[in-house]
Amino acid sequence: MAHAAVCAMPQRIAKAMADCAFEGTTDDQEKFVGQLLYRTREKTAEILGASIREIALVGPTSLGLSYVAAGLDFEPGDNVICYFEDYPSNVYPWLALRAKGVEIRYVEPDSLGRIQCDDVMAKVDERTRLVALASCHFISGWRIDVDAIGKALHDRGVLFCLDAIQTVGAFPTSVEHVDFLAADAHKWMLGPCSAGIFYVKQELQDQLKPLVFGWHNVECPDFVAADRIELKQDARRYEAGTHNLAGIAGMKAAFDMLTEVGIGNISRELLRKRKLIADQLLSADWNVIGHDAPETNQGGMLSAQKSGTDLQALHQQLADENITLSLRTDRNGEHYLRFSPHFYNTDDEIDRVLNRLT
């Protein structure tokens, strides 16, 4: 029940990784690398509605976001907008820009994570270069309106960077109005840790400078170094060297499985489970964060707390009973139990958890 944290990998994904590793015991580990990387980029582009030339495979979400923060040419006096109560991976790369004289502004929604388009645009002015948000808040489960925010920002000439780790694999996540996107596979994608996707809009690739250089992203025919740097003419320019092949094999297998089930089918099932959990918790006097959010803003996770309940102790008791939930804490020290079942979790499993809590 904790896919918003780290998933348990399906056997199909683990087998793909094991097969990749086993192939390396009998032959060159990279003998199938070209086909694997191409098919993974192709599947990623299909899921995001992007071009294959806009997809890089760089690993963790934090790395992709940091590539954006450090790779753009910011000037002193520019400002970047983010959300201070977001997951730290989508805060620290932007705070680091203060060293370049960039002002960091924080979106101020009415309640935790509940970011509306107007909240964002209220912070934008003529020196705003970029807005960096999460597609879904990691505690409140509020999904932002990516298209509305992206359109409004582009009308003002402002770039939009999306941390999409809490929606890719769970909800349709389009990059039509997004400039940069990063997401690791180990949550809703049901893939391994440190295999991830990085989207960079084609027309911005010359603006976003690579931070690392190697044999893969710089042209070097026959593996002979040239006396100048000539980058690959697509998003592969952000992949400097040898890839995490086993991880990518697992992520590719996960994408295949998710598209077979259908992302639309998955999102409908997650919303059904979310309502089931929220209704039963509310009837047992739990405070369910964001239970009244419009369906279009509901993510796959749901956080709750109950007056007089030691959630830290309860979380441990549940873990001892082989029930995995997440315990999360906000800036004020408030604890929350976070539920994030995936499409394959059964109603009987959910009932087992709820019967323990209500």
Strand order of the largest sheet: 1-7-6-5-4-2-3
Q: Approximately how much helix is present in the residues?
A: 25-40%
CATH fold title of the largest domain:
Aspartate Aminotransferase, domain 2
Q: What letter string, H or E per element, gives the SSE order?
A: HHEHEHEHEHEEEHHEEHEEH
Largest sheet: 7 strands, mixed
Overall mean pLDDT score? Answer: 96
Rounded to an integer in angstroms, the radius of gyration calculated over CA atoms is 21 Å
Decide which structural class fits the backbone. Answer: alpha/beta
Q: How many beta strands in the DSSP annotation? A: 11
CATH homologous superfamily of the largest domain?
Type I PLP-dependent aspartate aminotransferase-like (Major domain)
* Overall geometry: globular
Q: Per DSSP, what share of the residues sits in E-state strands of 2 or more residues?
A: 5-15%
